[in-house]
Amino acid sequence: MNILGLSGLVHDSAAALLSDSGIVAAMEESKLVRSRTAAGIPREAIRYCLERAGTGWSGVECVSVASRPLRAWARQAWLRTRLTPFAPIPSGYYQTKALGELGRELNNGRLLHLLGESPHLRVLHLEHHLCHAASAFYASAADRAVVLTLDEQGDGRAGSIALGEGTRLRILRSISFPHSPAWIFSQVTDLIGFTPHGDEHKTQWLGLEGEPVFEKLFLELLRRSPGKLPRLATSYFNGGLAGRIAFSAKFYRAVGVDPAIGKAAESDSPRPQIPDPLRKQLAASVQQACAKVAAELAERYRKQTGAKSLCLAGGLFLNPVVVSHVERNTGFDHVFVQPAAGNEGTALGAAWYVRHHLQRSPRQAPVAQLDWGPSYSSQEIKQVLDNCKARYRFHVSEEQSLEETIQLLGAGKIVGWYHGAAEFGPRALGNRSLLASPWAPYVKENLNEYVKHREAFRPFAISVTSERAAEFFDFSPAARFMATLGFAKPEAARLLEGFLLPGGRVRLHVVDRRANPLLWRLLERFGQLAAAPMLVNTSFNLFGEPLVVSPRDAVRSYFCSGIDALIIGSFSLAKT
User: Residue 470's domain spans which residues?
Assistant: First the structure.
């Protein structure tokens, strides 16, 4: 029988189907409905999972949902009740908003039974951060591990510290909202002019260009002493934590920012612009402080439990800079990062927790790849190409396809690379990627200006074969999923000067032959003609859209952008 795991039904909804042999299917709703965000029941993701498994609802043993809406509402209501004397009107607003969210979630839970076509369908609701922890621990190879989760908030919690042992997982400590490093990160994201809850990745990369001159301030704001649970210093915030940007005048004075910026955020009036050097300093400072808090917390529980492995999940650990800091500043022998560390990953955790912790079923092999999304046959791809009146070539073998791709890359072209099943999670790991030679002229400029339409400070990943990666980089196993940073050795620093981040760091994707044999072969063959088996790898999507999933998504993105060529299954398209 199968277990259907669902992420929380508020935002970033996703579904995952788990059988006795492992994950059968998993996909985010946003990718299927072609929107950057998706809330509510992930109907399309559920439909896809059941279709891929070849079963209907009758084959689902239970539905496990990564949220407990009543508990979430009770925790938020308790928080706002305590804050009411300091800000009665905003507290009343937040109480009303929480009640609306509770009503929607309870209604979604009712609708799940109707979707299941059975009044007896078993629906379990689990704690959000417990599912984060399960998604990391059960995906790892660790038999005993400290599991640290940190995000903005889920079910009224900002994080947890858990201990995983065999098939068992128990929460040691929970971190209550608002004592959330990730929430502070979002507040700074808004302050420096990016969109909160969407552009935190921009803050992380901008921070590498600045000095963390306010690190001490953010550490004082985030925690009382090293290794202790995060606890906000309330004097740095408005009464009742009210407002879109909740920092108080004391905070603005400490960082040299006009408090009018915070007030302007609450109205339609133009917000005063923060000078660019200060933006970089703020981004660097909050990033360094959050990384330090996470590392100190993990190290404290390493010493307390004696565990040799650490597993990480939650939105804060989508940040490779934070992950790299934790890896290098803790004493764990092994650090595993859930590749889909955000809310979508809780769908996996919800299913795994039921299977392993509640049912005591043996654990399965560690996650080695994430190709759990839709895949399409050559006939299906051909139908889309013909329908679009596209001119294409058909390749009779993989060798022919690889040969044409290498010629295009060698000529400095940007190539859309579409093969196999879509990946689960936010990163393109070689099935839905844009590839280019790192030695092509103006490759970064062309990708940024004509394809990605994004800021120049955001880096591109470098994919390299696992067999030769150690020649060029120092890296951890998390580089298989692009979840951490690598450090360039002298030869790589010479070859990849334009792709290095401050400190000789590089966004790295190490490709294992077993995980993605076709991309590995492409890298290996390209390395025989170029300086090394490396390619620039970035996500295959248009600006403001999620990763492509279907052939139609890929063809539309190809024709609507500056991509030079598209290798899609056994077919190739090129612009002249």
Answer: 378-574
